[in-house]
Design brief:
Number of strands: 10
CATH class of the largest domain: Alpha Beta
Radius of gyration: 20 Å
Largest sheet: 10 strands, antiparallel
Helix content: 25-40%
Length: about 180
């Protein structure tokens, strides 16, 4: 297994923040495009941002959960666009919101085919039910990361909170694979 074939890239960053101010969701939904608000179904307003392509849940408390960005620059750009949308309805956010990463999802490859039946038997912390889902779930406890592994060597990593953690988790996954292959 060569490192040239191994690769992984961030495909989604989920963050939360607080605008530290009450937000009039009814007014947002009535005034701004690309919003959905149905308080009987869910207490948050969904706003879709075209560029960068992200979505956010905004709650009347001022809490925001943003998803879909592939980099922290895009996260910050999305939050700025939300704040600028709020200005249009006379809600002036005076703070620079503190952004906390909740989860990073990355996808890539370990650069080789995997026998998932063998891995399910030989590795700890795995779940594999091929009748229900074609991937093996592997929890990397020490790295607080969870991987989906597929026979073609493709992987999806979730649970990390930084790009460094993603790369470190992939390295640990490969170490684990080398021990059982």
């Amino acid at each position: 297994m060569t490192d040239k074939k191994k690769d992984i890239r961030v495909v989604n960053i989920v963050v939360s923040t607080s605008l530290e101010q009450r937000i009039p969701l009814e007014k947002m939904a009535a005034t701004l495009p690309n919003t959905e608000y149905n308080p009987e179904q869910f207490p948050g307003l969904v706003i879709r941002i075209r560029e960068p392509k992200t979505s956010a849940l905004i709650f009347s408390s001022g809490k925001v959960v943003c998803t879909g960005a592939k980099s922290m620059d895009k996260v910050e750009e999305s939050i700025k666009k939300i704040i600028s949308s709020l200005k249009k309805i006379n809600v002036d956010i005076k703070i620079k919101p503190e952004i906390q990463i909740q989860n990073i999802v990355a996808s890539g490859s370990v650069g080789m085919h995997l026998n998932l039946n063998t891995l399910a038997i030989k590795m700890k912390n795995t779940e594999y039910e091929p009748e229900q889902f074609p991937g093996l779930v592997f929890k990397l406890i020490d790295a607080k990361a969870t991987f989906l592994l597929f026979t073609n060597g493709k992987v999806v990593c979730t649970g990390t909170k930084s790009e460094e953690e993603v790369h470190s988790a992939l390295d640990k996954l490969i170490e684990n694979l080398k021990q059982v292959i």
